Amino acid sequence: MRLKFAFMRFLTGIFILAFLCEFLIYYLVLYQCSYPVLNPEFEDSSIITNGTVEELRAMILADTHLLGPYRGHWFDKLRREWQMYRSFQSAVAIHNPDIIFILGDIFDEGMWTTQTEFDAYLKRFANLFNVEKPIELFVVPGNHDIGFHYRMSPNLEHRFSTAFKSRPVSFVSRRNVHFVLINSMAMEGDGCSICQKAEKNLKTVAAKLRCTKGVGVCKGIKPLPSYSKPIILQHFPMYRESDESCQEIDSAPPVLKNEKFRERWECLSREASEMLIEMLRPRVILTGHTHHGCYRFYPESKIHEYTVPSFSWRNKNNPTFMLGVFTSNNHALERCPLPQETTVIALYVIGLFVNIFIYFLPRRRFSLHEHKNPKTC
């Protein structure tokens, strides 16, 4: 009877441990993060607001890298996808954003998959990152979704764009906050068909912004209700030599910070970066790709660039995402940590040890009792 009771207690302990590590820990960690508060001192006085200013709450993540049919063990796939599912759904439930952006590399093997495999990918993505209206979700393509520029084909780009209703350069405006979503691989500037389409889209967006601002000619252009400096969202970071200057809690480990970036591989080219800044005059740039966090400020143009790390344990032990509050003349962004994989592993090890110890403890007492009071014939 005592053994049966001890075994039931052991199973109960295992259930509580699994509940903590696979469900509760996400809420415990994510409740510690909240939307940042807008600082009135940072308001852009050059932007005309016409009275009240509406806040737009955004959630930004990057590099989910859903494993495909060719790489990764099935348990690796199961473990990482459960982590991202619980992280994402818990964050959405707690923070209830108005809009969500995923900054590329949604899939790990998107550029290799057949149409059938890509359709299966889309179903998994829809299950993991499902959101209910009125929350909106937008994505930009990454090199693992459609390939680097040398590998990107019109078919791969069209397949991704059709699935996610995107363009090489897309424009999204909500509550007078303007977002420009850019295909980084189309910023090569070599005259390829996709690059030409991206440049055309980019010129259209830039012209609309200038027209709304009251600069230039508005012939044939319908202006926006009001002007505000746009926010760029793309997969590649803007041109930089390395991550050496990045000092955020989720930045790259020291051994990687000094590695030099190659233009068009780890970051946009210098020419493409300068072109985007010149044409769009953004206030914020949000990027991914490196799997590590970074913040850069451009004092000449007063632009803030945030690099968002990978959302998956497969790429980073301490993943984070960002919560942002935007208005037409102000913004604030906050990095939110997710549970660390090493923490979850440590909890499992300690919890199993404690459960095993408690399970065997009553058996040992029972054995000692029997030894001191032997049965007599």
Architecture overview:
The longest helix is centred in the last third of the chain and has 32 residues. The protein has 9 helices and 11 strands. The strands form 2 sheets. A 6-stranded mixed sheet has the order 4-5-6-7-9-8. The protein has a 5-stranded mixed sheet with strand order 3-2-1-10-11, with no helix packed on it. The protein is globular, with a radius of gyration of 25 Å. One of its GO terms (cellular component) is membrane. Belongs to the metallophosphoesterase superfamily. MPPE1 family. Keywords: Hydrolase, Manganese, Membrane, Metal-binding, Transmembrane, Transmembrane helix.
Whole-angstrom Rg: 25 Å
Please state the second-level CATH architecture of the largest domain.
Answer: 4-Layer Sandwich
Number of strands: 11
Helix content range: 25-40%
Q: Any key phrases for this structure?
A:
single chain; Metallo-depent_PP-like; 2 domains; five-stranded mixed beta sheet; 377 residues; six-stranded mixed beta sheet; 9 helices; alpha/beta; globular; Purple Acid Phosphatase, chain A, domain 2; hydrolase
Topology summary:
Elements: H1 2-30, E1 56-61, H2 74-95, E2 99-102, H3 115-128, E3 136-139, H4 143-146, H5 154-164, E4 169-174, E5 177-182, H6 193-213, E6 231-234, H7 254-257, H8 270-280, E7 284-287, E8 294-298, E9 303-307, E10 320-326, E11 331-337, H9 341-372
Parallel strand pairs: 1-2, 2-3, 5-6, 6-7, 7-9
Antiparallel strand pairs: 1-10, 4-5, 8-9, 10-11
Domain Calcineurin-like phosphoesterase: 57-292
Main location: membrane
Organism: Bemisia tabaci (Sweetpotato whitefly)
